[in-house]
Amino acid sequence: MSTITTKLFFDGACRGNGASHARSAIGYVIVQDGREIATGSKLSSAETNNQAEYKALLHGLRRAKALGVRQILCCGDSRLVVMQMRGLWAVNNPRLATLRDECKAEAGKLIRVNYKWIARAENSRADALANEALDRRE
Predict the structure, then answer these.
(1) What angle do CA 88, 89, 95 make, to 5 degrees?
(2) How many CA atoms lie within 13 A of 88 on its CB side?
(3) Is the pLDDT of residue 45 over 90?
(4) N or C: which end of the chain has fewer CB within 10 A?
């Protein structure tokens, strides 16, 4: 079996998690053969950190598809998102279920997509991008 050489690092950030005044943003980095080929960050309409995490994954998958990526390893520090995308944990929240379904549909446009939970320290670039987007808003 061939090794996937393209990785998507994704992260969401939310300040005021779950509150009506919550502010959130996403960040992602696409790395191919050890080299960054794309990054993205922007403010998000997510109300919770988990929603922001899913939106970061969704935007990263869309960008990967647009770049012609066919196989990708999605790496995130949200154990919830990774385990739900792998089908190992149930999705009880309707808003998260909708976002999970959107991510699955986008992933279905690629040949092979795997998910890996990584420690926050390994996701620092995507985290920084999400937080920079939040800071630009303030």
Answers:
(1) 130
(2) 9
(3) no
(4) N
Domain that holds residue 92: 6-137
pLDDT score recorded for residue 4: 79
Q: Which two tokens stand for residue 33?
A: 């053969």
- Phi, psi for residue 87 in degrees, rounded to 5: 80, 15
Contact at 8 Å (CB) between 85 and 126? no
Q: What's the chain's average pLDDT?
A: 94
8 Å CB contact between 125 and 9? yes
Spatial contact of 61 and 110, defined as CB atoms under 8 Å apart = yes
Bridge partners of 71? 112
The CATH number linked to 126 is: 3.30.420.10
pTM, full prediction: 0.94
What is the average per-residue pLDDT within 51-55?
97
**Polymer length of the chain:** 138
| The token pair that represents 100 in the structure block | 């999970």
Question: For residue 76, is it within any domain?
Answer: yes
